[in-house]
């Protein structure tokens, strides 16, 4: 069955304040969707709410991955169902090495009795790290501890490559990356494009989309998707900024839940 | 007949015991005097913990084992963690040595590694010079009782300029519910020498259900420029009370590295102290503990700076479960005149149960102006953001929590110098976390 990820009328709040005011997205396997928008319009909240961050309360709507309702699942179950979120601010965890963590994550998917062999795991890990031009030593470093911003982002992409999810959400994965790192990250993502995998790329700049070509572009303001289009929409945003959309829609303040 | 701790230990009993072991007069005298003091001195009073209310009566009777010719005569579970080649190893079973071995290579260089009772007989002058020179018999009821009653033990001597490249190991275990179990460890590292010592204090068989008091004193004398690395793991059962005093005295430019795993299931008093007497001496203490069930623990790391430019680091990490209580003290004392001293300490407590108690008490006592000293202390629960992150990769909550808890202890576990011991420590940690 082809992958299908559907978000219907999603509303979510944090500490009683509504941030998402009805989001609809439909992603099929093979498609890349980009969500763009200025800061403070609810983009990262969408990513966190989809993953199930405990701080966000979903008040309405549906999120289906291949027919399964993700909103009824715990965070780990959503991940095992095939959802992956490359985070904007990944946690640092002392004492847990990158390699141990990744092996636990892979084995959590595979289930007891079907664990990945150590040799196979190491071979895969080394190959993917090479692809991302990561120092092999990072496998034995504590998870994200002391990593630079760019190293953390590569590490998120490494996890994505190792875990082979069905739906990948990249939350501002381009922030804090220089152009070389951006290209490496983008080529990592491109290498994962496939008919049974969908992507949702959240970004505030168009530059990432020069390297990862989206099929659909959505603009988010005030906790809603206010405009959707093809790749040409991203190019126009790059050239003209967001003001023309605000004008077109009569929006004065595009942010949500800010004060 | 077991010795009653709360009653004065009889001088006559002690004398008979000492003479029965063929100990020299000077040692019999130390024991007799200490026995008298034990009747008058008070129990130590650590912060916020009344150890005098613990059950401190079961001193046990003298049970000296046969000396085993090889390790196969030791219980399987004890053997499991011993070095394969059985080299450079001392084993104490109950009240005395069951095995001792030091490779010829080190003997030839003048290194001594044996049980303390044997060292008293064979190297009397050396032992006499240092025994109770670091921890005095007359400090309190505990040190006095220990001086009167210690048995078995370990003696390490490393001559000047000798670097012992392999770790010296000791296993001290109780497998007799009636036995006195009171090892004394004395390590003397002469100028510019270097040595690593690793021990484990365990119970096996009938020792697992013994109602007993394990009282132990460790004395480390580090000469000028000497480096002593001391690692110790205690894993005694719920019914055994562990009273352990460890102390090092450091000459100029000497260094001690303590790695302590207090993983007992019973009440525990653990005091690990460095006296930085020498200029430029340094001390590093790393300690982990896990509190489970209803055990009470008083865990102290302590550094006292006398020497110029002396430096101390102390880091304690505690995981508290069930209704266990731990009072974690970190004491950095800088004496007047110890200019440019630098003391740094950290205590971190991870609380896993609302009924557990974990107090972190950093104490800085500074009597000199031109110094640096700081501390960091925290008591908290498993971090929700970290849990979310791990779970977002498909790891279930329980496993994610376990990864975070193990990770919390890992920076100290990874310092244990012998892989087999490190693995054993990891098994003990798993055991305590799963119990």
TrEMBL record, chain A:
Keyword field: ATP-binding, Nucleotide-binding
PROSITE patterns: ABC_TRANSPORTER_1, ABC_TRANSPORTER_2
This protein's record includes keyword ATP-binding: yes
Annotated Pfam families: ABC_tran
GO molecular function, one term: ATP hydrolysis activity
Residue ranges of domain ABC transporter in the record: 5-247
SMART domains the UniProt entry points to: AAA (SM00382)
Keyword Nucleotidyltransferase on entry: no
Lineage top rank: taxon: Bacteria
Family stated for the protein in its record: Belongs to the ABC transporter superfamily. Ycf16 family.
The protein's name: FeS assembly ATPase SufC
Organism expressing this protein natively: Thermobacillus composti (strain DSM 18247 / JCM 13945 / KWC4)
Record lineage: Bacteria, Bacillati, Bacillota, Bacilli, Bacillales
Automatic annotation (TrEMBL), chain B:
PANTHER family per the UniProt record, alphabetical: FES CLUSTER ASSEMBLY PROTEIN SUF (PTHR30508), UPF0051 PROTEIN ABCI8, CHLOROPLASTIC-RELATED (PTHR30508:SF1)
Segments for region (Disordered): 1-22
Protein name stated in the entry: FeS assembly protein SufD
Domain SUF system FeS cluster assembly SufBD N-terminal: 101-169
Family, per entry: Belongs to the iron-sulfur cluster assembly SufBD family.
Residue ranges the record marks as coiled coil: none
Highest taxon in the source lineage: Bacteria
InterPro entries in UniProt: Fe-S_cluster_assembly_SufBD, SUF_FeS_clus_asmbl_SufBD_core, SUF_FeS_clus_asmbl_SufBD_sf, SUF_FeS_clus_asmbl_SufD, SufBD_N
Residue stretches making up the SUF system FeS cluster assembly SufBD core domain: 175-408
Lineage of source species: Bacteria, Bacillati, Bacillota, Bacilli, Bacillales
